[in-house]
């Protein structure tokens, strides 16, 4: 049987087909030589083509550096074209903050030799990408035309790098996912966090380790940066507002889910529990609560109701 993504890839060459949907991207200036392409404050959907993550573009003398690559081959192509228009040079480097498809599935638009990822993320590309890809093709259909995930050729380690005269500090962390990368642009004092930080949007927890996530937030809070580009939501012009907001949601979520389990609520009832008023301004809060219930409920049930045979 032909996989859906293989079929769409084959159809891409058919001359009578209409063109694939087009991404229309805009870059917001953040600091000197640094822009962010804001993602939609919504879940991945046909209406947005999966372009829901923030992508940062950093100008260097060697060419622009992209932090994350978008959700599809076409998204990556559009980001590469935008970066070239902004800087007059082709993309010199792409760093992946983590494997989640809204951030990483555009890497096929770039030569593997300029794509960098931490070793755990590179391993995930080889091992986990197929499952993500199948789900994304089902959600986005023709937006995903031509999307494949070549293995990144460069290793993103923990520490400083200099690209085209611009010094970046790479921070290899975890918490939101098994392997997360944050990037501090030292020239502008801008911290780019991937999904370790959300701003005015409820955090997503599909592969989260909450204690590790809190430790990562503690480290990020102490870096002395001036502003922050989160994985989702608007740029935080302060050093700590978005970090504190993300931490507050996580600190509420974990005990709230445990309390719901102890109270005998079903998963549906837990997903409908009241959300504190202090989170009223967070986009997709109800959806992310319901997703978190689905992520954590099996483990909570296993702890609360152990098997008799065990």
Give a verbal description of the structure.
- The protein has 310 residues and is α/β, with parallel strands linked by helices.
- It has a single domain, classed as 4-Layer Sandwich (Metallo-beta-lactamase, Chain A).
- The protein contains nine helices and twelve strands.
- A seven-stranded mixed β-sheet has the order 1-2-3-4-5-6-7. The chain has a five-stranded mixed β-sheet with strand order 8-9-10-11-12.
- A hairpin with a 6-residue loop joins strand 9 and strand 10.
- The longest helix is centred in the C-terminal third of the chain and has 22 residues.
- The radius of gyration is 20 Å and the shape is globular.
- The relative contact order is 0.12.
- About 4% of the residues have low confidence.
Please give the structural blueprint:
Blueprint: H1 4-11, E1 28-31, E2 34-37, E3 55-58, E4 65-67, H2 73-87, E5 93-95, H3 101-104, E6 115-117, H4 119-127, H5 129-140, E7 154-155, E8 159-163, E9 166-173, E10 180-185, E11 190-192, H6 210-221, E12 227-229, H7 241-262, H8 267-271, H9 285-304
Helix pairs in contact: 6-7, 7-9
């Amino acid at each position: 049987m032909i996989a859906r993504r293989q079929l769409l890839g084959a159809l891409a060459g058919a001359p009578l087909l209409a063109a694939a949907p087009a991404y229309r991207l805009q870059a917001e200036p953040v600091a000197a030589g640094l822009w962010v392409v804001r993602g939609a404050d919504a879940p991945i959907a046909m209406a947005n083509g999966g372009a829901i993550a923030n992508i940062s573009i950093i100008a260097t003398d060697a060419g622009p550096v992209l932090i994350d690559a978008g959700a599809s081959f076409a998204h990556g192509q559009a980001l590469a074209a935008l970066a070239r228009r902004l800087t007059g040079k082709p993309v010199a480097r792409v760093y992946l903050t983590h494997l989640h498809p809204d951030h990483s599935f555009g890497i096929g638009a770039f030569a593997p030799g300029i794509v960098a990822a931490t070793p755990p993320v590179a391993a995930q590309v080889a091992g986990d990408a197929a499952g993500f890809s199948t789900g994304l093709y089902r959600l986005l259909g023709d937006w995903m035309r031509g999307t494949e995930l070549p293995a990144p050729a460069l290793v993103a380690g923990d520490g400083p790098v200099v690209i085209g005269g611009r010094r970046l500090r790479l921070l290899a962390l975890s918490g939101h996912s098994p392997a997360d990368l944050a990037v501090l642009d030292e020239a502008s004092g801008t911290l780019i966090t991937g999904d370790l930080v959300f701003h005015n949007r409820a955090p997503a927890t599909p592969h989260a380790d909450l204690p590790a996530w809190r430790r990562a937030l503690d480290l990020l809070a102490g870096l002395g940066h001036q502003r922050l580009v989160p994985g989702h939501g608007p740029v935080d012009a302060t050093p700590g507002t978005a970090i504190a907001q993300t931490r507050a949601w996580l600190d509420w979520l974990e005990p709230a889910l445990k309390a719901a389990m102890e109270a005998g609520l079903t998963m549906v009832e837990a997903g409908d529990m009241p959300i504190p008023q202090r989170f009223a301004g967070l986009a997709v809060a109800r959806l992310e609560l319901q997703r978190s219930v689905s992520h954590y409920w099996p483990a909570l049930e296993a702890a609360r109701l152990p098997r008799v045979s065990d």
